[in-house]
């Protein structure tokens, strides 16, 4: 008899790829179809995972339509089936997959929109962490402040795109007219994180984006701030550093 773990792997492979043969020593209940005994389970498996991806990537689904999204999701599922039991964690590489998917070659912004959808999902589902706040900052001396090292809150994503993703997002969700959307080169830099329990997305300047990236790479706070004009520092602290997107290392 096949070892349990090997049997489970073979069954999972047969469900994910129905054309594969069922292990010969598996018990076959009479109610299963003779020619393709796992077709019912394979179909349910695909429908469930495609629906989960549509929930995680609602903007992509709205932009291409439900039927086209099911095709894309099915192809992605064949390439990269889930490896974790939590469906909210499935789809991290969907944007990368869309980069090389010829079916959406005419929609060059779609992969970045998938990355935005994923960042919003991450902001919503990421674990809690104690974010840096004014009380923590106020307790530091000037020397400690200069040497302060931060790391990204688990919910934080920095996203760069050649397209105006906020405009496209609003259009897909019915808050913008098609006439207001431009698909010309319009580099966008976004900070996406969870603030007060809600996913938040905000556009930042190139200088601010560079400073945020420097912090995530491990640069000291003083070093990152040197990348900004002095006039931008108050907003940088209030709108980015103390907005819930960073924790102390």
Task: Compile the SSE list and pairings.
Layout: H1 4-16, H2 39-56, H3 58-64, H4 66-79, H5 94-99, H6 110-125, H7 134-138, H8 142-146, E1 150-152, E2 157-161, H9 165-172, E3 188-195, E4 198-203, H10 206-217, H11 221-225, H12 233-241, E5 246-248
Antiparallel strand pairs: 1-5, 2-3, 3-4
Helix pairs in contact: 2-4, 3-4, 3-6
Percentage of residues in helical conformation: 40-55%
Number of strands: 5
What's the architecture of the largest domain, going by CATH?
A: Alpha-Beta Complex
What Rg do the Cα atoms give?
23 Å
Strand order of the largest sheet: 2-3-4
N→C terminal distance? 51 Å
- What number of domains? 2
Instruction: Assign an overall shape.
Output: globular
CATH class of the largest domain: Alpha Beta
CATH fold topology of the largest domain = Outer Surface Protein A, domain 3
Main sheet characteristics: 3 strands, antiparallel
Query: Which regions are unreliable across 5 or more consecutive residues at pLDDT < 50?
Result: none
- Strand share of the residues? 5-15%
Order of helices and strands: HHHHHHHHEEHEEHHHE
Write out key terms for the chains shown.
mainly alpha, 47% helix, two-stranded antiparallel sheet, three-stranded antiparallel β-sheet, 2 domains, single chain, Outer Surface Protein A, domain 3, 249 residues
Written account of the structure:
The strands form 2 sheets. The chain has a 3-stranded antiparallel beta sheet, sandwiched between helices. The chain has a two-stranded antiparallel ribbon with strand order 1-5. The protein has 2 domains: 1-107, no CATH class; 127-249, Outer Surface Protein A, domain 3, CATH 3.90.930. The chain has helices spanning 4-16, 39-56, 58-64, 66-79, 94-99, 110-125, 134-138, 142-146, 165-172, 206-217, 221-225, 233-241; strands at 150-152, 157-161, 188-195, 198-203, 246-248. The chain starts with a helix and ends with a strand. By secondary structure, it is mainly α.
């Amino acid at each position: 008899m096949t070892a349990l773990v090997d049997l489970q792997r073979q069954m999972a492979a047969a469900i994910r790829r129905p054309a594969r043969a069922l292990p010969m020593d598996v018990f076959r209940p009479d109610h299963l179809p003779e020619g393709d005994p796992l077709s019912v389970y394979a179909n349910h498996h695909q429908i469930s995972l495609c629906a989960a991806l549509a929930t995680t990537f609602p903007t992509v689904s709205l932009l291409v339509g439900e039927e086209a999204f099911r095709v894309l999701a099915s192809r992605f599922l064949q390439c990269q089936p889930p490896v974790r039991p939590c469906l909210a964690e499935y789809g991290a590489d969907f944007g990368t997959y869309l980069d090389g998917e010829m079916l959406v070659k005419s929609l060059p912004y779609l992969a970045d929109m998938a990355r935005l959808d994923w960042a919003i999902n991450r902001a919503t589902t990421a674990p809690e962490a104690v974010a840096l706040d004014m009380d923590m900052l106020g307790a530091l001396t000037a020397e400690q402040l200069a040497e302060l090292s931060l790391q990204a809150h688990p919910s934080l994503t920095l996203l760069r795109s050649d397209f105006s993703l906020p405009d496209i997002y609003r259009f897909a969700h019915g808050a913008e007219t098609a006439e207001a959307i431009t698909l010309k080169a319009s580099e966008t830099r976004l900070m996406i994180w969870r603030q007060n329990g809600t996913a938040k997305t905000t556009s930042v300047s190139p200088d601010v984006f560079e400073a945020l990236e420097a912090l995530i790479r491990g640069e000291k706070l003083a070093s990152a701030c040197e990348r900004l004009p002095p006039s931008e520092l108050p907003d940088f602290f209030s709108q980015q550093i103390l907005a819930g997107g960073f924790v102390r290392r």
